[in-house]
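Reader question, answered in our methods column.
A reader sent in the components of a multi-part assembly and asked whether the whole thing could be modeled at once rather than chain by chain. We filled in our standard form and ran it. Here is what they sent:
COMPLEX SIZE: two components
ENTRIES:
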Amino acid sequence: MTADDLGILWLTVRVATLATLLILPFGVACGWLLARWRGPGRTVAETVLSLPLVLPPTAVGLLLLQALRRNSPAGRLLERAGIELLFTPAAVVLACAVMSFPFLVRFARTAFEEVDPRLLTMARTLGDSPAEAFRRVALPLAWRGILAGTLLAFSRALGEFGATILVAGSIPGRTQTLALAIFQRTHIGQDAAAMRLVVLTVALGFAAVLATEMLTRRRARRVET
Amino acid sequence: MISLDVALTLPRFELRVETDLVGGGVAVLGPSGAGKTSLLETIAGLRPRARGRVVLDGAVLMDDASGVRLAPEARRIGYVPQDALLFPHRSVGENVRFGLRSGARAGLFDELVEILEIAPLIRRAPTAISGGERQRVALARALATEPRLLLLDEPLAAIDVELKERILPYLLRVRDALRVPFLYVTHNAGEAAVIAEEALLLREGAVVRQGPTEAVLAAMTGERIDPAARYENVLAGALEPRAAGMETATFHAGGARLVVPAAPAEAAPGRTVFTVAPEEILVSERPPERVSARNRLFGRVMSVRETPDGTWLRVHAEGIAWTVRLTHAAEEELALAPGAGVWLTIKAHAFHRLA
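And here is the structure of the entire assembly that came back:
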């Protein structure tokens, strides 16, 4: 294991964590709205939010690149604010966030759908505002599913490749995450060096999936019976 | 006082209730699907599509004319639904505390735990207790909010639950200790007689009878409120402690001193509820002599009603209105009419203790 390897690992974990934290509030909010909203537009919203799941990641990357390039409206806004986004670590975070968002939303939606809506109205008659009922009833009942979605989103972010390479490139020490480094090292014939990174990704992925399984399988809190 | 003028479109009919309820306790009677639960939910503010006006002790909770519609949390109405709906992620104690607000009276929690006898359950999960216990916990949780009105929806399944599981004795204690006015949906007309001063009979969303409970029940003697519900006589009163060597004890209800099975030695003396099935009461024109049954009461027939199930009598005896069921043949032989004096004979063991 070289210092380079560990640097890549650290960058990967950092951007995946930031991406996950970034999408957490929005993902939970979208999951909640999709679970509760019964009006028109629900199916359309659901489809749009799921698109990154079915599109090739490079297609999503190209769309992001187009949206953020210098002469686009968003690009001009960023430029005026003096923010350099493309080909920076922040762009890696953005690409990971977009690609893992649908996982979180799906899990959160399912978790909220399993909460009996009558428990929420019950909380209202006991004096809770809708926001308090959400915090005291919906969230605690759905947290297991939300956590599972969060860990899955984190795992997805760890392995993000296609969208990242388009908006952030593969700059060693700056935007080159594990997935990008493995590709680059293989490309230039350093198979043994690439394998070391593969071992790291296996360990990381194993830990994330295991944590998900353990947290979602563990029985609800022990109570005296 | 609750003043209602509400309408709500339901799949099979329109719920339409326009009435003033003045009693501290109001029994809401009616068959399954008559709109009883919808009425409670409308009052609690849980039916966004309900229209009209709801005023509770002068406070307007909802009024379409002036655009007032208080959110459920602003109404201060305690609601106990049929299935109790305890929060599964909280223990029994945490469920009760859920409703406690910062300004709640000190000692309220302990008082509720004591009145509703849930101390042994406090640390259990809602899934680990019985249906009757869940109802009591849900009642405690609703009362923890110090509501201005309590709405109770008795499960239809409660008709056949074990005697000790029935909520009625606890509700009587709550009524006496906390004096919260309540609306009680019950399938048991006999329970209505002891708990509520006023009764309301709903059919297909409309109030078909309303008034003092005694008058409503007298008018519907023998009428089946619900196909699944049997009528039973329900008596609330004071039970004397068991005397040494006796298997019976004296029970004071209405103006009567009744001989009933003694309570187990560990039971607390005091207010108790007994039930008697209408079939277990014998009727005779002359005082029965040398019979084994311990209770002989003289009374007057108030009403006689023939149904396919038999003949139903409403008899006033010693301050209690009894409902009695006779076979058609027995009724023909006795030829009873309102106003007739009759003797009622009841075995001590025909009385079943609720709590």
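What stands out: The mean pLDDT of chain B is 89. Residues 131-143 of chain B form the longest helix (13 residues).
Send us your own complexes using the same form.
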